[in-house]
Fold Flavin-containing monooxygenase.
Amino acid sequence: MAESRKVAVIGAGASGLVTARELRREGHRVVVFEKSNQLGGLWVYNPRVETDILSLDPNREIIHSSLYKSLRTNLPRQLMSFSDYSFDCAENVNRLNFPGHEEVLKFLNEFAKDFGINELIRFNTEVVRVAPKSEELSSEEVFDSVVICNGHYTTPRIANIPGNHNYRVPEPFKDQIVVVIGDGPSGHDISRDIATVAKQVHLTTGSSEIEVSKLDNYANLWNQEKIDHVDENGEVTFIDGSSIHADIILHCTGLYDFPFLETNGIVSVDDESRAVGPLYKHVFPPKLSPCLSFVGIPYQAIVFLMFELQAKWIAQVLSGKVLLPTEEEMLADVEDHNRQLEEAGIPKRHTHQYIDWLAARVEMPPIDAGLTEMYWSIYKFVGQVGWSGYRDLWNF
Ligand code: FAD
């Protein structure tokens, strides 16, 4: 008979919501802890920014959202559905291919309402400690299993470079010289937003193989080399030796951070490779499974579908329907995986064909080939037309 466990889910963002649904479907008793007063995680727009502009003070008030006002999804709406719950189920505001953030929040709220997830969530409840059960502290709540769904875009990746992580609107950057660190979709969007008012914007990458050049048709926006160092006056020196004086440095990068997790080093975050581990298939720490698991670690994926499949897998492992390999086998798999990625020169956090692997674990068919094709077509298209305007030009 399937086992029912008492499971804590940390976070009521997209990953926590779908995890709660899957756990409950599988017959588990679920409590979702959410430190804010509403669900949706990073899709909740908050115009306020943190007061500590370096986000370094551990006692600062943390504002979870990294969302800026103009943000539109970087994946098309077709790739933002769950397998059995279409993005278009919700009565959405408009039908843009790449909708605005308000629409995603609406979708997640509808999802939670339709599956009765709200009643499982304890709002305004921040988890400050997760540790193996101890005898001494009786005030703690005890669960059979904890699933960590806390997202990874709140703590900026500072990399010893001072700067600000909080971007909402361009106006405060008027006439400033701004260096933007991180050339993912957000870094590109934000640079172009700011370039409408700033004196100069320099978008830097982690790569040393960039040709310094103006971007698109902007007179004041440059693609820059990797930063070598920044001195205390804001003088930014790039690895080719050139330098500029920056008024503001903006970080558009995120970090895995589990300040509440006490595992005696069994699970750790490697800042350099930006990987969490060891995790079997990015979900289970071999030594602590199935009591501890993570949803949402890889980020090169069809994200919502990946959350859902990881959650189904966790739910079925906990009920005993699906078996995990032994601890030794899982550790050997992690080592093998990391070795293969290193040999191929791919960072540990990137994954390929992972979603189909997960689907097979829970006896679901491989994901629709059309969706995978659509996903890769976006990267190809951005390669052809650049980041500027790809959302409005893309037509699959
Ligand atoms: P989050 O949404 O960050 O939710 C985590 C939740 O955990 C939050 O509500 C937080 O308050 C809560 N929490 C954290 N710590 C604690 C604690 N200790 N105790 C209690 N609660 C806690 N993905 C796409 O599919 N399409 C896109 O277009 C897209 N665009 C993106 C744009 C940006 C700028 C960013 C940063 C990411 C984007 N992503 C996109 C990826 C994004 O990660 C996912 O879409 C997804 O919404 C993340 O969900 P999550 O639940 O993992 O994390």
Notes: DSSP finds eight helices and 17 strands in the chain. Residues 175 and 198 are 4 Å apart (CA to CA). Residues 10-16, 33-36, 41-43, 64, 66, 71, 73-75, 80, 126-127, 149-151, 153, 186, 260, 296, 303-304 surround flavin-adenine dinucleotide (CB under 6 Å).
